[in-house]
Write a structure and sequence with these properties.
heterodimer, A: alpha/beta, 6-stranded mixed β-sheet, 19% strand, B: alpha/beta
Chain lengths: 171, 201
Amino acid sequence: MRRGRLFKPGAGPTLMLTSLLDMFTIILIFLIVSFEAESFDFRLNPDLALPESTATAQLKPAVNVSVTSGVIQVEHEDVAQLTDGRAEASQYESGEIPALVTALRAEYERRFGDQPTVGAPVDQADETAEQQEPIVVLQSDRELDYRTLYLVLRSAASAGFFKYRLAILKT
Amino acid sequence: MFNRWQRAVEETRDLDLLPVMNLFMVLIPFLLMGAAFYHIGVIPTSLPTHTPQQSDVPATPTTVTINLQIAADEISVTASSTGLAQEQLDALGAAWPKRGDDYDVDSVRAHLRTIKERYPESNTMIVLPHESLDYESLVHVLDATRDYPTGQRDDHGEEVRADLFPVVVFSRLITAEPGAEEEGAPEGGAAEAAPAGEDGP
């Protein structure tokens, strides 16, 4: 008698999907709001922690260089090794990392060919012109010392890159 | 009559949600892949360069270039300009010792704001950190010296910041050899080169 009241013959148990649907709707709205369609390839190196900053400048397409405590990458390819965030002593003396200069010079020629860019006046408001400039976006670990950071920038300058964008996490 | 009403109620009660669920199951992984859970920004900087086409003389005589030296135990500001006398430039200099482990960036910012008010066209700052300074501390100092919060909010509710010295040029302090005569500024050494390759924010 009791069993007959609980389970009607012929009517199978149905899933209550309404609450699940509510949850999915909320997740969907959250994801649509935070969706960012980037027109260029920027991948944060998972082996480093960027410092936080109040800087508001937007990330724009440029050559990606990342410096962790163990390796320097250009466009996600390993080009030079570091030991605890430090390069070889001879490289500090010479003021550049030869492997990094070679890799960046190849990247420079691939993107800009033989066109001279150093000293050429560029209209900052012209976004297209700025994208055609040789600019390096530097992802660097927050523990990296200035000596190594400056060495990387000097190496980029040797390869023809005179402007840099230090990647940070916006607060 | 009653049967028809009962049938109509049953038909409207059983919505088939499975296609909607299927759609959600496709959309959610797709959006998860493109979602940004952090926002990356950049700090524009450059290195000193020298090109024959560019002149060291500033465009207007009332601009000053700030030299921000970050030593291990203090942070100091000096100014250089071709349009001001040495006494005037000396009056713009100041130094602040470290407070515990942190630099006194609030005092530096207040001092730079007074310089900016006197020479509003100035925007270039040469940064000379000591070699062991970590990147995070450097960014922290740059945050305090490149701009400042105005206390106002824009239409999106975000804090409005006004420019201080947004054009940052990194350089390196070359320590004078013992016994050798020091050349140039700032304090106890010489910057590697004069800035020329400026970069806007």
